[in-house]
From TrEMBL:
It is found in: Cytoplasm. Keywords: Cytoplasm, Ribosome biogenesis. Residues 100-130 have a biased composition (Basic and acidic residues). Its main location: cytoplasm. One of several proteins that assist in the late maturation steps of the functional core of the 30S ribosomal subunit. Associates with free 30S ribosomal subunits (but not with 30S subunits that are part of 70S ribosomes or polysomes). Required for efficient processing of 16S rRNA. May interact with the 5'-terminal helix region of 16S rRNA. Residues 97-137 are annotated as: Disordered. This is Ribosome-binding factor A. Pfam families: RBFA. Monomer. Binds 30S ribosomal subunits, but not 50S ribosomal subunits or 70S ribosomes. It comes from Alloalcanivorax profundimaris. PANTHER family: RIBOSOME-BINDING FACTOR A, CHLOROPLASTIC-RELATED. NCBIfam families: rbfA (TIGR00082). Coiled coil: none annotated.
Amino acid sequence: MSRHRRPSGFQRTDRVADQIQRELSRLLQFELKDPRVGLVTVQDVTVARDLAFADVYFTLLGEGEDAGLEAERVLSGAAGFLRSALAQSLNTRTTPRLRFHYDKTPERASELSKLIDEARAEDRELRPDDDTNTDND
């Protein structure tokens, strides 16, 4: 058995991804001065095993998909600046190249919630006399 066996849980790439997420959040809030990028929230960062790439998933507060895709283009254009700023704080030999992805999950969750509410309202209209409903909203 090797002395250098990796633990099955938290790996180096996870630690690097967490550090990138924290640092990018700070950089986007205080260093990036582009009006096309509103209030960005970095949802997740995944780092390749060889640390060559970091995929950054983000959302925009109170904005729609069009603004999110525009922000994705802007952030991709600023990836070099952000990568050099990250290099100063990461303790790695190389700094991963950043790839930004607009995360549509919150919008999709809102759409699904609305559809569920509409289906429940329609169901209540079809069965208005059903008082045995134990639904606890």
